[in-house]
Amino acid sequence: MTIKIAVAGCTGYAGGELLRLLATRDDVEIGALTAKTSAGTKLGQHHQHLTTLLDRDVLDTTPANLAGHDVVFLALPHGASAEVAASLGEDVLVIDSGADFRLESAQDWAAFYGTEHAGTWPYGLPELPGQRERLAGSRRIAVPGCFPTTITLALAPAVSAGIVDGHDVVAVAPTGPSGAGKSLKPHLLGAELMGSASAYGVGGVHRHVPEILQNLRKLGAAAPTLSFTPVLVPMSRGILATVSAPLSGPTTVQQVRDAYASAWADEPFVTLLPEGLWPQTQSVLGSNYVHVQVAVDEAANRLVVVAALDNLAKGTAGGAIQSMNIALGLPETQGLTTMGVAP
Amino acid sequence: MTIKIAVAGCTGYAGGELLRLLATRDDVEIGALTAKTSAGTKLGQHHQHLTTLLDRDVLDTTPANLAGHDVVFLALPHGASAEVAASLGEDVLVIDSGADFRLESAQDWAAFYGTEHAGTWPYGLPELPGQRERLAGSRRIAVPGCFPTTITLALAPAVSAGIVDGHDVVAVAPTGPSGAGKSLKPHLLGAELMGSASAYGVGGVHRHVPEILQNLRKLGAAAPTLSFTPVLVPMSRGILATVSAPLSGPTTVQQVRDAYASAWADEPFVTLLPEGLWPQTQSVLGSNYVHVQVAVDEAANRLVVVAALDNLAKGTAGGAIQSMNIALGLPETQGLTTMGVAP
Amino acid sequence: MTIKIAVAGCTGYAGGELLRLLATRDDVEIGALTAKTSAGTKLGQHHQHLTTLLDRDVLDTTPANLAGHDVVFLALPHGASAEVAASLGEDVLVIDSGADFRLESAQDWAAFYGTEHAGTWPYGLPELPGQRERLAGSRRIAVPGCFPTTITLALAPAVSAGIVDGHDVVAVAPTGPSGAGKSLKPHLLGAELMGSASAYGVGGVHRHVPEILQNLRKLGAAAPTLSFTPVLVPMSRGILATVSAPLSGPTTVQQVRDAYASAWADEPFVTLLPEGLWPQTQSVLGSNYVHVQVAVDEAANRLVVVAALDNLAKGTAGGAIQSMNIALGLPETQGLTTMGVAP
Amino acid sequence: MTIKIAVAGCTGYAGGELLRLLATRDDVEIGALTAKTSAGTKLGQHHQHLTTLLDRDVLDTTPANLAGHDVVFLALPHGASAEVAASLGEDVLVIDSGADFRLESAQDWAAFYGTEHAGTWPYGLPELPGQRERLAGSRRIAVPGCFPTTITLALAPAVSAGIVDGHDVVAVAPTGPSGAGKSLKPHLLGAELMGSASAYGVGGVHRHVPEILQNLRKLGAAAPTLSFTPVLVPMSRGILATVSAPLSGPTTVQQVRDAYASAWADEPFVTLLPEGLWPQTQSVLGSNYVHVQVAVDEAANRLVVVAALDNLAKGTAGGAIQSMNIALGLPETQGLTTMGVAP
């Protein structure tokens, strides 16, 4: 069987990464590629790296153009997904890499996004307990945010095992500007970013905060709190999250390692590194892998976890394809086995 | 059939890239991984990105450890390949990513490397005329240097078509430090390289000069000359060569495009970009593709060609695997179809 | 005496660099800072690094606001300088960092800029023969382009000494995106530029070509030709030009070194590096220095010169201030003696 | 009066930065430049950016060579300072940029450095309460570590004002590899660092932890605790620390701003940025300035402070010179007023 896919919003970074990962699959046919203002251009003008697709036409994002596909990926600005999704049949698998259908709380949505809540779709983070069952056969999937994927995976085994209870979590996460998309803003210019690190969204205002807290609650945290600070650093891709939380009681690093090793024994993409190795983003560049390492800081009474992933791959497009594989009953790792491009 | 491969010199960048590209192939079994001073360590200490191979043992580079493989890749310092190769049977495919067996002229070898010439093996650049035939069934292959691959492919159609005759070629090629390997030298430290560009090997002394001239002669250039300057720039991988040469006579850019399009119509990995797009190294990062674009500078009477490739992929390990595929009668693109990781 | 200066176009990179270099001078008073669309904002919104000027108001670029200054720097888009300059008195020193008044040939201007030629002002490259005399006392100065400064200084002693005659010059120059200003274009985004090298303006179409040829003619080249290719690489600032040209006759590298050492013996900012050292852009970062090294490629019969400078400092704002110092009769190096920020 | 200075350990990054900042001062004479293994070389082989000092000889680090200077800067590996200092007269100002004399607790020293405690010298952080008085006239000064300077300045006003009490401080600090010096280690190679972020010294083991806690206690914290994680990111210089701590009670961001503005009203180098601007390392590159911004995260009940400085300038050499100025009774800002080189 060949899966015919369409990408709405193909000119952005998420769209490009979906196509990079899908274009070489034998079981996938690349169907309609659509956009809004760029309709009428060639894909190569937006993604020179998609060598085999350079001459493909970018079509307008219309129900007619998106019709007739098995899977439609939405890589649209926040707020635009609901209308497009509504035009697609219920038998079509629609996978939204935007935020619109991630949050369960309409109140959280309003507080952080300021618009009306579109609803909630099954959440595309298969590593959450019971989540694979919810995704299997689903025809609507909300891809998690890149920081929520990183930080949730960094803490999940510790919260599940009661090593931490999820209160007073502090996460600081250097990342590259590809997560901000192709927005033409001065602070995203290369001249401004190269050779410089800068924090943004400081003080609890980043839109991924409620999503992370929602995940921690699903993992069993009764009243999680989170201080989260993303930091722009001079690399195109990657997230390197340092996440710490107060220990619930005396814990050795070996106990933590055991909990993580056990939790991820059967996970294909999440890897607890051997002792002595600390995650680095280049190790997962372009791949669907997540690298994790743990430490116990006795003097500060905190568990410290460092996690690395590629924000466009596992953090967006790779995660989306992993969920697609599950929803369609394919092997979960299909098309996602390449390793990080390093050095 | 499963191809059992070994890598001698597995801890360096070339060795790591070979394993990255081979580890996910169904038709390849990763056999012995060997090194010299690092024997006894784990592969993960050298290549954190090789997620599925982190716990593999690094063995000593001995004939016994390298015995029993279908293919042995040599990723050794210059001068070390001959002895290891001599210990391997003639039925074993030996692919050397070093320089030892590239040059046909013992005099050139002596002038640029200062040691005794080891000999000449079939040259692993399938895009040269008639080269695929020489590689098919071969059991010894010399992988070209990364700059020779770039500059030769940049000029090949123009030399073959007589657009230029190969004299007074000027090539300047920004590249990343991964091409220099893991040498522990001050000028290769991150602090020195980030935010800075610097030339090296200036004035005709770079060891790739005679190899490039050898290739130009094979393409038909009677008396090629080359001014070549590599430039270190702040990126880990990639070569972006700007190559120019005097036009043999009045030539339009369309004539040049036609010659290149025709020459590469059936080449799986070399791509003349659509008009208006200029090569960028990120577009081929981690991939086996080469991107090329051409211009005619009438006022300066020069053909100008820009070519981009990944020095560790098509420039070393990808090119090696492409040649392996040909030598073993496999589809030439097997395991090499992923596209560049961008942005 | 205190020199009261104004900057028209203060929000761009050239404007910022002028202020960085002038703000700490005891003999300079920072007067009006003006802009067009950003009038009404604070300077700190555009230049966070100008610590002591963060709260300064950005005024509108009007004759009234620019009146009453000893020196007015114009850091405006091409084509905008003439009108502003016309409103300033003839006794005011007006220094234009734009291209409008650089070219002497109206035909060249039309061919490369496509608009009407504004005229020609004294050219602010004091290192050209006789140029200091032309700048002394001048009240109108055109600051050279950053590539023309680099390439002209790379070749000047060789052309003057007849080592090369200026025909068939080939220059390839990696540079950072700050030279393109704060233009909000996708290819200047950090995500696109980091980790990548790409050529642009290939084939003789870059606007600095006629300016470089004009300089070579002034140095004595009868019929200079130039193949020039700029290359964007991942660093904010800096130009590293590799410039080569056919040797007029047999020449040793020592003869070349002698010519350069002699030509620059009294130049405060141009430095022929000791033998064995090759220019690197970090060595001149933020400084007004130019570093140069030479080689003779006998086999290719070319002189090869590598030159490094900071495109915003010596290449724009530093060069402008150097000319200001000369025009006002101040010590030429005043305020320009800091060395490159490395590593 | 001219101050004659010597630098022991002149070939490293700290030594180079001291010379960069001192070489252009009219009131400073550059005396002996010494090193150990590099004695007999020229300074230009180690610091190409020190244009005016390229031909200076590197002498051996001996008492004879260091004799006869007003100020001797020690930029040596940890553990080497005591012996050199003992050979210098008590009237000579000795400023140690190493760690040897920073800690007051011999127990802390033993726990984190594993050798015998050398003693304690006046601590060169003038922004600490009462510290300028201790430094005035002193002839021995211990320069603070780069992370301690950053994190202490980030928290000082909040601890002094009782906004936080110093317990459960969490600091995560992306930085560049220049802080690690010119150590020839694989993980510091440019190929490994460019395009990648990685944590190190995780879990409370970094040697700067006890120094930071010592400073917090001096500021009035009764029982401070600290979880500190440095992160290597792809820039040569700079520290961007995100520091958070539980609020002692309900606090508005305006109250915090008032406390910081008040505390730093007279500080020449520490700047609370205007509201809306967040620190970025390029803004302080090469300068002695520290940029700070604050937020209150009510939901997480934490004060969040972001601070940026240049680890080699204010974090090492600039701070050292600031202390020298104070010790010698010179204006504190002498030679340190240049602003950050951005973009």
TrEMBL record, chains A, B, C, D:
Q: Which EC number(s) does the record attach to this protein?
A: 1.2.1.38
- Keyword Kinase carried by entry: no
Q: What are this entry's molecular-function GO terms?
A: N-acetyl-gamma-glutamyl-phosphate reductase activity; NAD binding; NADP+ binding
**InterPro entries, alphabetized:** AGPR (IPR050085), AGPR_AS (IPR023013), AGPR_dimerisation_dom (IPR058924), AGPR_type-1 (IPR000706), NAD(P)-bd_dom_sf (IPR036291), Semialdehyde_DH_NAD-bd (IPR000534)
Biological or metabolic pathway of the protein = Amino-acid biosynthesis; L-arginine biosynthesis; N(2)-acetyl-L-ornithine from L-glutamate: step 3/4
Write out the annotated subcellular location.
Cytoplasm
Tell me a GO cellular component.
Answer: cytoplasm
What is the active site of this protein? Answer: 146
Please give the coiled-coil regions recorded for this protein. Answer: none
What's its top-level EC category? oxidoreductase
User: SUPFAM superfamilies annotated for this entry?
Assistant: Glyceraldehyde-3-phosphate dehydrogenase-like, C-terminal domain (SSF55347), NAD(P)-binding Rossmann-fold domains (SSF51735)
- Per its UniProt record, what Pfam families does this chain match? Semialdhyde_dh, Semialdhyde_dhC_1
Q: Using the record's annotation, list all stretches that form the Semialdehyde dehydrogenase NAD-binding domain.
A: 4-136
Q: Does the keyword Metal-binding apply?
A: no
Gene Ontology terms: biological process: L-arginine biosynthetic process
Q: Which domain of life is it from?
A: Bacteria
Q: Which UniProt keywords apply?
A: Amino-acid biosynthesis, Arginine biosynthesis, Cytoplasm, NADP, Oxidoreductase
Q: Which reaction does it catalyse?
A: N-acetyl-L-glutamate 5-semialdehyde + phosphate + NADP(+) = N-acetyl-L-glutamyl 5-phosphate + NADPH + H(+)
**Which PANTHER family does the entry mention?**
N-ACETYL-GAMMA-GLUTAMYL-PHOSPHATE REDUCTASE, CHLOROPLASTIC-RELATED, N-ACETYL-GAMMA-GLUTAMYL-PHOSPHATE REDUCTASE, CHLOROPLASTIC-RELATED-RELATED
Family, per entry: Belongs to the NAGSA dehydrogenase family. Type 1 subfamily.
**Primary role:** Catalyzes the NADPH-dependent reduction of N-acetyl-5-glutamyl phosphate to yield N-acetyl-L-glutamate 5-semialdehyde.
Task: Spell out the protein name for this chain.
Answer: N-acetyl-gamma-glutamyl-phosphate reductase
Q: Name its species.
A: Propioniciclava coleopterorum
Q: Which gene encodes it?
A: argC
